[in-house]
């Protein structure tokens, strides 16, 4: 979840700076830098991952199509076995296989779906996926730095930054729990604890480094 990743990363980062001797301007600069650098990193990471998945799919599709062209009967029997395992009778399986294999494109789609459990329609657009990940990270990373951009004093910005960030993390955890059909409150608390622990740890480290 890129949004929560960005939030936790920047919350811990700038809280560590706030715990040290950093000025408000340095904290602002550091927070914005993490926002931009993290978003760019997530964008290119997501782009490469999605393109790799797409390239792998095309390679698998080309291999399966080659097998259809060179060993059609073997591929027909392989497809038939899938439907027999699903409970169809041999006659029913033959009927389905004959219908599917009459169109090589549908034949290929069915083999990929049954054998490799992938479908071209489920592949994400690399650019869209990368933009989504980058913008989500950017939005999450902006939350903890907001109070430092609005308030004029560093000491007044720390508590609002942590409070608002933890509220957002709890909400993100609840939302994640609802999607995953798990215990939503527990999921929210887990996200909150992760954010609180990370920021507390970096704050202590910042305080320790600030002594030198």
Brief sketch in words of this structure:
By secondary structure, the protein is an all-alpha fold. The protein has helices spanning 2-19, 24-70, 72-85, 90-101, 104-116, 126-150, 154-180, 184-210. The protein is built from 8 helices and no strands.
Characterization of this structure:
The chain is an all-alpha fold. It has two domains: 2-44 and 126-210, no CATH class; 51-122, no CATH class. Helices cover 86% and strands 0% of the residues. It is built from eight helices and no strands. Helix 1 runs parallel beside helix 8, helix 2 (24-70) crosses helix 3 and helix 2 runs antiparallel to helix 6 (126-150). It starts with a helix and ends with a helix. The model has no long low-confidence stretch (mean pLDDT 85).
Mean pLDDT: 85
Cα-based radius of gyration, to the nearest Å = 26 Å
Number of helical regions: 8
Helices and strands, in order, run as: HHHHHHHH
Structural class: mainly alpha
Largest sheet: none
Shape descriptor reads elongated
Which spans have pLDDT < 50 for at least 5 consecutive residues?
Answer: none
Helix coverage percent? over 70%
Number of strands: 0
As an assembly, this protein is single chain
Strand content: under 5%
Q: State the distance separating the first and last CA atoms.
A: 37 Å
Number of domains: 2
């Amino acid at each position: 979840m890129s949004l929560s990743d960005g939030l936790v990363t920047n919350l811990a980062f700038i809280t560590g700076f706030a715990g040290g001797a950093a000025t408000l301007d340095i904290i602002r600069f550091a927070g914005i830098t993490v926002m931009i650098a993290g978003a760019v990193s997530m964008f290119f990471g997501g782009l490469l991952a999605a393109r790799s998945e797409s390239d792998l799919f095309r390679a698998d599709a080309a291999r399966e199509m080659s097998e259809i062209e060179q060993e059609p009967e073997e591929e027909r029997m392989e497809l038939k076995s899938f439907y027999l395992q699903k409970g169809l009778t041999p006659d029913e399986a033959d009927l389905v296989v004959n219908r599917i294999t009459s169109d090589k494109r549908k034949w290929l789609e069915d083999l990929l779906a049954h054998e490799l459990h992938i479908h071209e329609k489920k592949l994400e657009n690399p650019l869209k996926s990368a933009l989504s990940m980058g913008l989500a990270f950017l939005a999450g990373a902006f939350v903890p730095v907001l109070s430092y951009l609005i308030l004029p004093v560093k000491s007044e910005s720390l508590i609002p930054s942590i409070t608002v960030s933890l509220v957002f993390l709890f909400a993100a955890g609840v939302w994640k729990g609802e999607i995953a059909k798990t215990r939503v409150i527990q999921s929210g608390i887990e996200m909150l604890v992760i954010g609180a622990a990370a920021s507390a740890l970096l704050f202590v480290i910042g305080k320790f480094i600030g002594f030198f």
